[in-house]
Amino acid sequence: MTNDQDWERRVDALWQRLDDHEPAGFRARVAELAAERPEDDAAALFELGAAHDSTGLPEEAVVLYRRALDGGLTGLRRRRAVIQLASSLRNLGRPDRSVELLTAERAIPADRLDADETALAGAVDAFLALALADTGRDREAASLALGALAPLLPRYNRSLAHYARALLTAPDGS
Predict the structure, then answer these.
(1) In whole angstroms, how far apart are CA 162 and each of 71, 110, 156, 165?
(2) Which residues contact residue 9 at a Cβ distance below 8 angstroms, ignoring those fewer than 6 apart?
(3) Is 74 strand, coil or helix?
(4) With pLDDT > 70 as the criterion, what percentage of the chain qualifies?
(5) Residue 111 DSSP label
(6) Cβ-count burial of 160 within 10 angstroms (0-12 exposed, 13-18 middle, 19+ buried)?
(7) Strand, helix or coil at 114?
(8) How many CA atoms lie within 13 A of 128 on its CB side?
(9) Which residues contact 129 (CB under 8 A, 6 or more apart)?
């Protein structure tokens, strides 16, 4: 196993035990792992941001997510960083910026994403729906959320997808 694979395995194992740690202790453990990487390693910065975010420190998380993204974060972690940054910004009272980030993320053509990134399309839509609701765009939020849900239903998916689109065109949704 390469050093990168070992590091990834240990990061994953630590996240699986998040609830076994006090917040400060968890952040310290992630910081120890991050310290094994170069100072501006984008993956390490993302993990630090996520640790701060998951333990109630969204302001610090925003800084770390931005550094990770600016540092060239790629792949699944890049998509996760955008989602998590947008969520933190929404929670910090900046839903307009969250809408901007997630709208841009949603616009990335599927052929530019790998399967793991594509699998997070529903998460992009869900967090965008939350941000839209926070900006007073409730019908758009409901349409997006219902449209994301429609393919998952065993029945009524065609009808629900139709009604989700109709929310954007008909004033009463009928």
Answers:
(1) 41, 22, 10, 5
(2) 1
(3) coil
(4) 96
(5) G
(6) middle
(7) coil
(8) 24
(9) 141, 142, 144, 145, 148
In this prediction, residue 171 carries a pLDDT of 66
For tokens 């170069």, what's the residue?
Answer: 38
Tokens 């994953």 sit on residue: 12
Two structure tokens written together for 96: 């307009």
- Percent of residues, the chain, with pLDDT higher than 90: 82
CA distance 133 to 174: 20
User: Closest Cα partner for 102 from 119, 76, 80?
Assistant: 80
State the pLDDT at residue 173.
47
Tens digits of residue pLDDT in 99-158: 999 999 999 998 999 999 999 999 999 999 999 999 999 999 999 999 888 888 888 988
CA distances from 144 to 35, 85, 121, 137, 173 (A): 40, 20, 11, 11, 14
Gap between the Cα atoms of 17 and 129, Å rounded? 30
Is 0.85 surpassed by the pTM of this model?
Answer: yes
What residue has token string 């699944």?
76
Average pLDDT, whole number, for the chain?
94
